[in-house]
Hints:
The protein has 527 residues and is α+β, with helices and mostly antiparallel strands.
Amino acid sequence: MRGGAGRGGDFQAPAPLLTCRALAVFLSLQAPWLRSGPGRCEALAARACLVAVNPARGPGPRGARSGKIFHNLMERKDFETWLDNISVTFLSLTDLQKNETLDHLISLSGAVQLRHLSNNLETLLKRDFLKLLPLELSFYLLKWLDPQTLLTCCLVSKQWNKVISACTEVWQTACKNLGWQIDDSVQDALHWKKVYLKAILRMKQLEDHEAFETSSLIGHSARVYALYYKDGLLCTGSDDLSAKLWDVSTGQCVYGIQTHTCAAVKFDEQKLVTGSFDNTVACWEWSSGARTQHFRGHTGAVFSVDYNDELDILVSGSADFTVKVWALSAGTCLNTLTGHTEWVTKVVLQKCKVKSLLHSPGDYILLSADKYEIKIWPIGREINCKCLKTLSVSEDRSICLQPRLHFDGKYIVCSSALGLYQWDFASYDILRVIKTPEIANLALLGFGDIFALLFDNRYLYIMDLRTESLISRWPLPEYRKSKRGSSFLAGEASWLNGLDGHNDTGLVFATSMPDHSIHLVLWKEHG
């Protein structure tokens, strides 16, 4: 093979195999950090330097000797010696001269050398940094990538998938950003990527309005005015003088007992407590259907009841503007709390979880609400208690409160025409007002650390409380409206503090219908 080697000089190339090897070594000298061995590296530039470093050398005695060497197949030992000598010269060149040498060498190469060059360049230039870096440094770099990019990177190779999947902190953070709870006790390195994939699917279903399904409970013969949900069981109280206990998962009626007209219900495994339009409260035994206690004293319908077995106390709120405190086991009235000027539509007994000047953690607190005010009573300290505080959203009573109240021992939340109001229970200060200008008069169903469940006449909504934006909605039928809010309720509430892949099951929402059935909205099983 002949090629121009300078002014008036001819150059005879060595055999293709030697040329390929010289090319590889020569290129490795261009990038010292990629050298694969001293012998190979130092021998790389022989051909290049002979041709490009001194291209002007003519056909004199020395040039003739060079041509003779390369005309015959060079012996292995001679070739290695030649490469050693040329490498010294090449390494002494400037970067520009080295580049020119490379250009000239490539121009003299044939198809075999160019193919060899291409194969070696790919190996030399494409470095798998994720494989070479320490695992801790790889994890640090991965934290800067978004989850979707990480999932794409998992497709690069098995090694990348293994490293990325084991980056626990990255996937935990991704899950948190989606509003999922994190259990730090889980040690499985691959667990959290699987959780994230499950989370992203559920959030996509919520965004696409495909996360829920509906069902109905049929059994009452008159309007259903009272609902209460606990641990997979739904209690319904009706004007047909009965109360029923339903297994939501199967739709089967577990118990059905004869009662008075029910305006409010609450139950546990053994008993049912009902507030009635006949101005009384009653306690019933599920197993026998017998009435075990009858509480008389209100002069108006009883719209809300709550009780605590530990305190042996029952409380009731009535249309007579009062709240009564009863001895649960004896049935006697212990106290009548006054101060409301409207129907008392909600009473809540709850342990306090924060400390203030007025109460301590562990104290039982009673909240009672009417159309305009929420009153706070220290029910756990004394029976003859006085109101600690009255909360409202407008001093002139121009803004009404919706008939739903959330109290978890730390915060009080109630909705109004102006939005959701959240009070700090330690200071009674308003922490924030969450407004939804695009949708007016949203009513509160449930409130957690991450999500809130809201509804209006047409839809059920999920709000991300971190951004105060509505992330999902679900259509509702023409349900029975109730000014007291007793004919609709939220189901499972733990997911409001963050989904975890297990708590997004069961009942989401229930409401009574004009045809006396119960309309259920349930979580759809994961796809």
